[in-house]
């Protein structure tokens, strides 16, 4: 039944289009056809609601009547308070976080796809302190960034014996010494001291 | 004379064939390319493909200089493959390669950053495989976006931490260390085991 409806609709559409084209070519309703004005040719103007055209018997109005359905429309104007209540309701403005998890290290809450913000705040502070010392060179004066291995030393850190350092250099593990960056604070517990400085 | 003619001809043509791109000979980048192309905008430049490259260049320069940076998540995702590619070129090809030198000259316009890339960053990855960068996602932050007539407009930004591996800073995410090797814990463990043995012996 659906396919039949579709076929009917398509044929109707085609017929309507043909009609529209023919009418426009003919100069509109009630106008004489665009042909040489010969005495022998009898003008047959198309009147409104005339009999079926040679190609089909459907018109646009009939097509519309076929497809008419009753749609819903608002009966009254929504008041300002009602509109505001709908737009700024708490259910619309606030959405709950469904993906909250607890950090294993500090116990703070964060979303599953992110890292813990509280833990990272401490990391950021220390990183910026180290960066300040590392970026203290002026490239426009010909100074260069540090290429040697870097050791970050805090207060109250046990300093390796000079002998050990000399031995390491002799073994070839460290070349040209190590750049030591002194920090004016104690070592945090989560920043473990490495056996060897990072290359 | 031959050399000079060839040199001048290559500069005239400026085609890719004169610079061996060697894309096929390099291993694939181990950084995921963002699936949504980003229209990176910045003040003072008209937003187009060239502006996007300018923004990416600034990010890559900052990364090579500082080795760790916090930026907008979409920009970090977008810039990461470019940074990986630059480090890969430095590691695999070195400073003597013509193409690598050209890329470094454009992507790192600051002085002393080519030295940083070839002498500080690239040597880290001689025996270390890709990826050379890491990207972490921070919780969203509400930050000032712009000010209009003394009224501050805020926006919720997604922030990411982009870093080059092997930097001297503390790890972004520290792995939970076990405290099983502490003296007290070892003593407790041994004492519990001893107690268990005595109970089993009694049975």
Automatic annotation (TrEMBL), chain A:
Pfam family, one: Ribosomal_L32p
Example of a GO cellular component annotation carried by this entry: mitochondrial large ribosomal subunit
Signal peptide: none
Cellular location(s): Mitochondrion
Transit peptide as UniProt keyword: yes
UniProtKB keywords: Mitochondrion, Ribonucleoprotein, Ribosomal protein, Transit peptide
Function, as annotated: Component of the mitochondrial large ribosomal subunit (mt-LSU). The mitochondrial ribosome (mitoribosome) is a large ribonucleoprotein complex responsible for the synthesis of proteins inside mitochondria.
Entry similarity comment: Belongs to the bacterial ribosomal protein bL32 family.
Protein name from the UniProt record: Large ribosomal subunit protein bL32m
Biological source species: Pristionchus entomophagus
From TrEMBL, chain B:
Pfam families per the UniProt record, alphabetical: Ribosomal_L17
Ribonucleoprotein as UniProt keyword: yes
InterPro entries, per database record: Ribosomal_bL17 (IPR000456), Ribosomal_bL17_sf (IPR036373)
Source species, domain of life: Eukaryota
BP-aspect Gene Ontology terms: translation
GO cellular component: mitochondrial large ribosomal subunit
Keywords, comma-separated and alphabetical: Ribonucleoprotein, Ribosomal protein
GO molecular function ontology, one term from the record: structural constituent of ribosome
Family: Belongs to the bacterial ribosomal protein bL17 family.
Name of the protein this chain belongs to: Large ribosomal subunit protein bL17m
Taxonomic lineage from the root: Eukaryota, Metazoa, Ecdysozoa, Nematoda, Chromadorea
